From TrEMBL:
<feature type="domain" description="Nucleotidyl transferase">
    <location>
        <begin position="9"/>
        <end position="260"/>
    </location>
</feature>
<dbReference type="InterPro" id="IPR005835">
    <property type="entry name" value="NTP_transferase_dom"/>
</dbReference>
<keyword id="KW-0548">Nucleotidyltransferase</keyword>
<dbReference type="GO" id="GO:0008878">
    <property type="term" value="F:glucose-1-phosphate adenylyltransferase activity"/>
</dbReference>
<dbReference type="InterPro" id="IPR029044">
    <property type="entry name" value="Nucleotide-diphossugar_trans"/>
</dbReference>
<keyword id="KW-0808">Transferase</keyword>
<feature type="domain" description="Glucose-1-phosphate adenylyltransferase/Bifunctional protein GlmU-like C-terminal hexapeptide">
    <location>
        <begin position="293"/>
        <end position="364"/>
    </location>
</feature>
<protein>
    <submittedName>
        <fullName>Glucose-1-phosphate adenylyltransferase</fullName>
    </submittedName>
</protein>
<dbReference type="InterPro" id="IPR011831">
    <property type="entry name" value="ADP-Glc_PPase"/>
</dbReference>
<dbReference type="Pfam" id="PF24894">
    <property type="entry name" value="Hexapep_GlmU"/>
</dbReference>
<dbReference type="InterPro" id="IPR011004">
    <property type="entry name" value="Trimer_LpxA-like_sf"/>
</dbReference>
<feature type="region of interest" description="Disordered">
    <location>
        <begin position="372"/>
        <end position="394"/>
    </location>
</feature>
<comment type="similarity">
    <text>Belongs to the bacterial/plant glucose-1-phosphate adenylyltransferase family.</text>
</comment>
<keyword id="KW-0320">Glycogen biosynthesis</keyword>
<dbReference type="Pfam" id="PF00483">
    <property type="entry name" value="NTP_transferase"/>
</dbReference>
<dbReference type="GO" id="GO:0005978">
    <property type="term" value="P:glycogen biosynthetic process"/>
</dbReference>
<dbReference type="InterPro" id="IPR056818">
    <property type="entry name" value="GlmU/GlgC-like_hexapep"/>
</dbReference>
Amino acid sequence: MALPRVLVLVLAGGAGGRLELLTEQRAKPAVPFAGVYRLIDFPLSNCQHSHLADVWVSVQFHPASLTLHLSNGRPWDLDRTDGGLLVLPPYQGTARAGWVSGTANSLWRYAPLVRDFAPDALVVVSADAVYKLDYREVVDGHLGSGAEVTMVTTEVAEDDAPRYGIVEVGSGGAVTDYAYKPDEPRTTTATNEVFVFSPGAMLDRLEALAAEHGEEGLEDLGTHLLPAQTRDGLARAHPFEGYWRDVGTVDAYWRAHQEFLSAEPPLDLDDPAWAVHTRGGRHSAARVLLDSAVDNSLISGGTRVLGNVHGSVLSPGVVIEEGATVVDSVLLPGVRVRAGATVTRTVLDDGVVVGERATVGGDGDVTLVGRRSEVAAGSEVPAGARLPDPEEED
């Protein structure tokens, strides 16, 4: 018997505004993670290990940053003659043309393409979380279940629950209630932005909702589509108990990096059975030089450390000069921390230079310095400067 025809749609077109300066000049899925990876590497690697080779990526904001990284799908074995990777940008020329205004609106715009492809199951995933998941297992559970949608769910912290779609699950895994980013969540069971749809029924419903609310009124999946499927008793849950982190805010992004600094990180990114793949770089081995000190840190290729690094992540090409100290921080590619400078609880964007004897960050909230921060001309924190300015904090 032939395997079911499965299409994966990666929704990678969001503005990512909660990541602030990190998405000012790049797409959110192109944001680096754990030194050498990008956020989109996680769903694409999941597709590869799940043996799903038909993958479409919807792009919108800063598409060049993401398209360059995708490399025609080669790192994930998606550069195929038949099927493989397809990048979907906004377009003009048909009745479905225009700027995407939400995840459900995105599905509506691509509906004719999906119908032409005629999949048995449509897997829709976001690209701003860190996790490993066999999508094929979720698809197999969905097919034959009678559900119109299967929502992959996970448990989240009570104070974090208002950020997500929250569900109540009854007997047999049926979703009995769905609330999109509620002010007062009734449970801590959240959808983790992985959905498997029965395409024909879902797209028919989406057309009806578009007629009722207007195409712009469709907004996100959780606005009308998922609540309607839940009310009709056609939604089921697939509980996921593994590691999953939404890194869509600066604080969550920093905290996830801290979790990967432990002796036993939550995910083995090099596990031969489920390695996370990425577009390869061209960097030499990292160099940790005499009289420097490094502990509890991730050091990528092409870095050069002459100072002290503790509890931090150094991306490719980072330079820590003599006498400089970096503590509990995430440094993206090409950052240079000059002699005598101190960086604490900070995320430094690509190419940022911290001047000699400057002090960035502290014991409070995570500090973010972008490539175009209003710190100085270009991306350099001036020598001797202190950021944030203690007088401004007062």
